């Protein structure tokens, strides 16, 4: 009788990197020693937004104790200009800094001081003096100043889209026409961007914190005008990315420049304040939304217009209107996006580009229309759900938004509100979530030893998403072995190139590649077997690779397993195979993960202070690979949503195009006490049209809609509608007065 | 952070033996000073570490006063005040500030002397009269959400961020100091802080070589007490507006009111006008609003903090009405308004 | 020779008095378990335990802790076997990227002691969410000095609650 290893995909397996993380043993970028103790590089930043360096004095710094070099545009060496070549993607274009005396934005690097110790480098940096001839920086302040139509939007959306005919005025029973604003925000990963670079014998070895490895290598090769073959990038553990580490940023360029200049190992760790300027943030948005409904509360018209800033010379724009285009059916849908070039640090992907902030506005607007029309906002949403894509009429691979809303409302107890304590008001809010899903090219290699140990290699990264664990599970399940028998190695550019982490595509894409690699391995094994065993199942247990003939029909008797060792000698091991996925492995139909968010809040009648009581969501995202890590991803997104609704915002200092609050003291990410009960359920339905493993993305699903549910709950509690995020108590008081 | 010479003070040798001047700083817990030194907002040439000054790390009392040593940590003080119903206000204020980690290092004296959290004080690329006299004030005409509405001047509108100091002002604490010539003096905390005027870089009555040794608080019945801190997130954030209040209701009127405001003044604010109005008055919303108006008559707002007067009115109303209600329900009550211990 | 005691071992203090405890751990002792999240006492990632009290290692100079007993994450748990809180963190998935985790655990280990000691918190004195002291809200408040951008807060609170329940048995 054989013993099968129980399938683990879909179960709550503990993270395989858990022990390392809870005991402080996981190594992040700044902690790699390389062969040589790294020197410390400290960044000197510009104090002017845009202009030209007219004087630069590094003598005092160079002479300071412990200093090995001060690098500026005068001695940084060969660098391809920033964002060249134009035809490369923004993740592979040059990331040059210190290549010219021009300053592109406030806080841009002016020099890198390299010394033996952090204290020496940091102090010597204060001795560098410079003057910059500044120009008045361009910023976006008014909606109408955003006149540029972006070539395309993140996610591949067209800037403008329109479908159907505008309704007749006489058909409209209820309408709203409002403007919503969301502030600049930042990923604020707990690990500041950091790089240790070592340059030896023309070869560059880089430890950094990056979400996508392959493009990082390309970017460095282009930036430093080196051969990709001479560059190795490693990022086995990333202390949070959330989009800010999709590409490499100034810390990487500076560390590499420093390492090349000194032919030493150089470490550059950005200070928290420097992270705000030397890495990307999300631009603020102004969203104008007009909605109209008619008889029987059918949506007749959805118009969404978006204005956002775009960093000069950096092509990135968010599709804040994506939700308006797909969530509800409507006779007429129109969505446009315009941007304005500004003199700010890079504006790039921050968790759930488009939808994170689009949903804050759009789902608030839908709620406003429902109230205007005199119908319960949950009922209104359910009434207007589409069966096919509302604009294109195309099919969804799966579409369970209705079930998420209905079942979710029951689980949340939508109708039942806690009795408020005196002086408080309680409210319930709901919001829909639709987040596009894609499958991205990804490869992996799997290797099997004679004693059945499985090693998976791919340059895929784990940014907290649980990659180590789910790839372990997928390999274990496909090869019929236990998770303890599988080692997953990630984050090394010498491993097969993957899709990297981002856009919620990592798990399904890299997971499918691993699955295919394991299937290819099995096929390899079978190719050396006699035909009689061609139907046998490979199982790996107790250090042995077995072939088990599965009984046909009702016959319970199973033949005794045969050892692979009978057909293959030890010298033939390890055997390996690779697997890849591409767009060919995914359907052309519309693919979305979806969900329904619910929130319960308490608002103080005097002060307008808001306390979250409950957050709940019901989600549909195909096959859930690991119940534990998936739930954590979603909860994490819901916590972000709470921050977006209530606490987060970067304030701008207009005159200097700088940030007023570039630190954790005044940029308020949610703290533990801001968050109360957070719970969720998954509607399990594998979606094999989306990916070979049947999974869809969840990393950005949790944040989409979470904040809007809270905003709607606040309205329900105190009948104040705040359209300028974050919803702080002063805005609620203003609404009451 | 520029290099500094390090000295130690343990209370045994005289202060006069130390090189104390405008470029020296006493180092207590370090949670404010080290923060500012890393940014070169503070650039002392000499540091006098008080780590070994054990004598200052004690809390004692007699029949009339509590004596709180300068080096007592905020956590230890909170724990102590938690056991003393008549100064529950102090425990409440302390526990609302910062985090456990910071309170375990922050000291009594260090807390009183902490610098402002003004964004532009912290940003050495921005003009700041407090940090560099005569360079201007960047908070005017820019984002000033967290800035003061009381005690401001054309030179500076930065808020004092301490919670502990607000409760101590309400409780009429006294600051005791020592000078290098051996003299000691006592300054009422209500008189200790200076408004910015033309010299925002001078924040207290202390001489540059003067050392706080302890704080004393008179023991008296303070009634029901509540420190309510309104801020942009539920913890680990400074006050936008805070109200420290203790009161009794006798014969249906406010009695023995202790009151102070945080988050709204260039120094922890002692609302003299409001207190005069409230003492002996009936605890109604109308009366409270009138008291608030009396205090707010001198308030100035600067754009992003225009919301503060109304938020102060509402917070004050909430706090005083809830305290009054509690006193009416529990006559003679002494201690915290909410006690979940 | 001025020393401090680190995870049971005496170590000499660094020469440069500007060296914070955090930078001392990294640069001089190659102990990277304690993390730098902000270097300004605004995130708690660098939380360690000094003389039984949790503190931010970034806001104390190493010399200030002369003679003190310091425990870092490397000193939590006995060798190969994990502390109950570490085990609870794994069970409850109370971390994702893991960068704030060392600080969360040092904080959590201290919190267990603080609550057993009945140290007060802001929740002791506040008009709490449901008008009665909830253990979870109290834990949340006491852990608010440790930011987690991955948003593992609910699971962190659950892990700590589990260990409290375990200890009460």
Account of the protein in words:
The complex is a heterotrimer of chains A (737), B (341) and C (169). Chain A has 737 residues and is α+β, with helices and mostly antiparallel strands. Chain A is built from 15 helices and 28 strands. A seven-stranded mixed beta sheet of chain A has the order 3-5-1-12-9-10-11. A five-stranded mixed beta sheet of chain A has the order 7-15-14-13-8. In chain A, strands 16-24-25-28 form a four-stranded mixed beta sheet, with helices on both faces. In chain A, β14, α7 (322-326) and β15 (332-342) form a beta-alpha-beta unit. Chain A is globular. The relative contact order of chain A is 0.13. The mean pLDDT of chain B is 97. In chain B, β10 and β11 form a beta hairpin. Among the domains of chain B are: 5-50, Uridine Diphospho-n-acetylenolpyruvylglucosamine Reductase, domain 2 (2-Layer Sandwich); 224-330, CO dehydrogenase flavoprotein, C-terminal domain (Enolase-like, domain 1, 2-Layer Sandwich). The longest helix of chain B is centred in the last third of the chain and has 22 residues, at 308-329. Chain B is built from eleven helices and twelve strands. Chain B is of the alpha/beta class and 341 residues long. Chain C is an alpha+beta fold and 169 residues long. Chain C has two domains: 3-75, Beta-grasp domain (Ubiquitin-like (UB roll)); 84-168, DNA polymerase, domain 1 (Orthogonal Bundle), CATH 1.10.150.120. Chain C contains five helices and five strands, in the order ββαβββαααα. Chain C has helices at 21-28, 84-92, 101-116, 135-142, 153-168, and strands spanning 3-6, 9-12, 47-50, 53-56, 69-71. In chain C, α4 (135-142) packs across α5. Chain C is globular and about 50 Å long. Chains A and C meet through α1, α3 and α13 of A and α1, α2, α3, α4 and α5 of C. Chain C: Keywords: 2Fe-2S, Iron, Iron-sulfur, Metal-binding, Oxidoreductase, Ubiquinone. Chain C: InterPro entries: 2Fe-2S-bd, 2Fe-2S-bd_dom_sf, 2Fe-2S_ferredoxin-like_sf, 2Fe-2S_ferredoxin-type, 2Fe2S_fd_BS, Aldehyde_Oxdr_Iron-Sulfur, Beta-grasp_dom_sf.
């Amino acid at each position: 009788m054989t013993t099968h290893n129980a399938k683990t995909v879909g179960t709550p397996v503990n993270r395989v990197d858990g022990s390392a993380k809870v005991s402080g043993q996981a190594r992040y970028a700044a902690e790699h020693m390389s062969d040589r103790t790294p020197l410390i590089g400290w960044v000197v930043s510009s104090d002017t937004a845009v202009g030209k360096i007219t004087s630069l004095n590094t003598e005092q710094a160079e002479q300071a104790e412990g200093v090995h070099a001060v690098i500026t545009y005068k001695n940084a060496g060969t660098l391809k200009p920033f964002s060249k070549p134009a035809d490369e993607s923004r993740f592979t274009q040059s990331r040059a800094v210190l290549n010219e005396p021009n300053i592109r934005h406030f806080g841009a690097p002016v020099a890198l001081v390299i010394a033996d110790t952090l204290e020496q480098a940091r102090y010597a940096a204060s001795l560098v003096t410079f003057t910059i001839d500044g120009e008045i920086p361009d910023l976006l302040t008014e909606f109408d100043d955003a006149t540029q139509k972006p070539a395309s939007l993140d996610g591949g959306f067209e800037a403008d889209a329109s479908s159907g005919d505008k309704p007749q005025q006489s058909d409209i029973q209820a309408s709203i026409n409002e403007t919503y604003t969301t502030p600049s925000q930042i990923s604020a990963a707990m690990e500041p961007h950091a790089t240790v670079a070592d340059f030896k014998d023309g070869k560059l070895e880089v430890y950094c914190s990056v979400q996508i490895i392959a493009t990082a290598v390309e970017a460095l090769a282009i930036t430093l005008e080196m051969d990709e073959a001479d560059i190795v990038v490693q990022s086995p553990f990333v202390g949070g990315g959330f989009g800010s580490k999709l590409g490499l940023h100034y810390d990487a360029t500076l560390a590499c420049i420093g390492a090349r200049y000194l032919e030493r190992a150089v470490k550059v760790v950005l200070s928290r304040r420097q992270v705000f300027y030397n890495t990307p943030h999300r631009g603020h948005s102004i969203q104008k939304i007009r909605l109209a409904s008619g008889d029987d509360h059918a949506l007749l018209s959805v118009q969404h217009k978006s204005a956002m800033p775009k960093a000069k010379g950096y092509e990135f724009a968010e599709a804040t209107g994506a939700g308006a285009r797909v969530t509800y059916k409507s006779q007429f849908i129109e969505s446009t996006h315009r941007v304005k070039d500004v003199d700010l640090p890079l504006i790039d992907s921050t968790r759930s580009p488009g939808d994170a902030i689009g949903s804050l506005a759009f789902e608030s607007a839908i709620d406003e229309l429902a109230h205007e029309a005199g119908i319960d906002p949950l009922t209104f949403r359910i009434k207007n759900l589409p069966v096919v894509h509302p604009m294109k009429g195309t099919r969804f691979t799966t579409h369970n938004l209705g079930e998420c809303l209905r079942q979710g409302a029951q689980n949340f107890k939508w109708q039942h509100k806690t009795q408020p304590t005196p002086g408080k008001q309680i409210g319930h809010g709901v919001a829909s979530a639709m987040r596009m899903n894609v499958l991205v090219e990804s490869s992996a290699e799997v290797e099997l030893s004679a004693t059945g140990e499985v090693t998976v290699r791919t340059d895929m990264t784990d940014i907290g998403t649980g990659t180590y664990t789910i790839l372990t599970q997928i390999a274990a399940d496909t090869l019929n072995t236990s998770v303890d028998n599988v080692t997953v190695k990630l984050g090394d550019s010498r491993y097969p190139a993957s899709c990297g982490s981002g856009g919620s595509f990592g798990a399904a894409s890299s997971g499918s590649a691993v699955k295919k690699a394991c299937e290819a391995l099995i096929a390899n094994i079978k190719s050396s077997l006699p035909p009689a065993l061609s139907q046998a199942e490979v199982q790996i247990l107790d250090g042995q690779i077995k072939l088990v003939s599965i009984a046909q029909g009702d016959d319970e008797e199973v033949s005794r397993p045969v050892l692979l060792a009978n057909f293959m000698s030890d010298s033939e091991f390890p055997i390996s195979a690779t697997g890849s996925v591409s767009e060919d492995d995914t359907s052309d139909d519309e693919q979305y993960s979806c969900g329904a968010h619910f929130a319960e809040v308490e608002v103080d009648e005097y002060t307008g202070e808001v306390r979250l009581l409950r957050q709940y969501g019901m989600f549909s995202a195909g096959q859930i690979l690991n119940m534990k890590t998936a739930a954590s991803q979603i909860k994490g997104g819901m916590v972000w949503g709470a921050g977006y609704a209530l606490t987060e915002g970067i304030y701008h200092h207009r005159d200097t195009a700088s940030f007023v609050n570039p630190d954790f003291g005044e940029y308020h990410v949610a703290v533990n006490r801001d968050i109360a009960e957070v719970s969720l359920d998954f509607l399990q339905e594998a979606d094999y049209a989306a990916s070979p493993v049947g999974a869809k993305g969840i990393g950005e699903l949790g944040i989409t809609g979470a904040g809007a549910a809270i905003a709607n709950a606040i309205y329900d509690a105190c009948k104040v509608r705040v359209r300028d995020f974050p919803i702080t108590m002063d805005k609620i008081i203003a609404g009451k007065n | 952070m520029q290099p500094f010479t390090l000295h130690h003070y343990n209370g045994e040798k005289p202060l006069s033996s130390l090189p104390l001047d405008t470029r020296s700083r006493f180092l207590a817990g370090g949670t404010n000073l080290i923060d500012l030194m890393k940014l070169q907002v503070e650039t002392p040439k000499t540091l006098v570490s008080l780590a070994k000054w054990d004598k200052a790390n004690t809390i004692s009392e007699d029949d009339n006063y509590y004596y709180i040593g300068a080096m007592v940590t905020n956590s230890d003080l909170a724990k102590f005040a938690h056991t003393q119903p008549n100064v529950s206000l102090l425990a409440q204020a302390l526990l609302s500030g910062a985090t456990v980690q910071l309170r375990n290092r922050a000291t009594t004296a260090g807390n009183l002397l902490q610098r402002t959290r003004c964004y532009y004080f912290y940003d050495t690329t921005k003009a700041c009269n407090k940090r560099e006299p005569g360079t201007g004030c960047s908070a005017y005409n820019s984002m000033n959400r967290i800035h003061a509405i009381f005690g401001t001047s054309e030179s500076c509108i930065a808020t004092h961020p301490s919670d502990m100091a607000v409760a101590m002002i309400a409780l009429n604490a006294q600051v005791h100091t020592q000078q290098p010539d051996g003299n000691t003096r006592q300054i009422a905390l209500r008189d200790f802080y200076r408004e910015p005027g033309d010299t925002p870089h001078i924040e207290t009555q202390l001489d540059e070589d003067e050392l706080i040794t302890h704080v004393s608080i008179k023991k008296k019945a303070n009634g029901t007490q509540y420190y309510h801190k309104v801020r942009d997130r539920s913890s680990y954030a400074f006050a936008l507006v805070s109200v420290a209040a203790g009161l009794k209701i006798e014969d249906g009127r406010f009695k023995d009111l202790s009151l102070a405001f945080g988050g709204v003044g260039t120094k922890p604010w002692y609302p003299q006008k409001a207190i005069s109005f409230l003492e002996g008055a009936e605890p109604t919303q109308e009366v409270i609003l009138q008291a608030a108006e009396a205090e707010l008559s001198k308030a100035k707002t600067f754009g992003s903090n225009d919301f503060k007067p109304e938020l102060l009115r509402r917070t004050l109303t909430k706090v005083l009405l809830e305290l009054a209600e509690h006193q009416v329900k529990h006559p003679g009550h002494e201690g915290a308004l909410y006690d979940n211990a | 020779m001025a020393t401090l005691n680190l995870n049971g071992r005496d170590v000499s203090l660094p020469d440069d008095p500007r060296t914070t405890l955090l930078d001392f751990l990294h640069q001089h002792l190659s102990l990277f378990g304690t993390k730098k999240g902000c270097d300004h006492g605004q995130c708690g990632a660098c939380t360690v335990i000094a003389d039984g009290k949790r503190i931010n290692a970034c806001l104390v100079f190493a010399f200030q802790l002369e003679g003190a007993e310091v425990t870092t994450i490397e000193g939590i748990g006995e060798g190969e076997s994990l502390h109950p809180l570490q085990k609870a963190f794994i069970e409850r998935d109370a971390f994702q990227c893991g960068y704030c985790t060392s600080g969360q655990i040092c904080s959590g280990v201290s919190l267990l002691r603080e609550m057993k000691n009945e140290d007060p918190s802001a929740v002791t004195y506040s008009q709490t969410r449901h008008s009665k002291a909830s253990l979870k809200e109290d834990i949340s408040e006491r852990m608010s000095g440790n930011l987690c951008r991955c948003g593992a807060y609910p699971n962190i609170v659950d892990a700590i609650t589990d260990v409290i329940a375990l200890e009460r048995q």
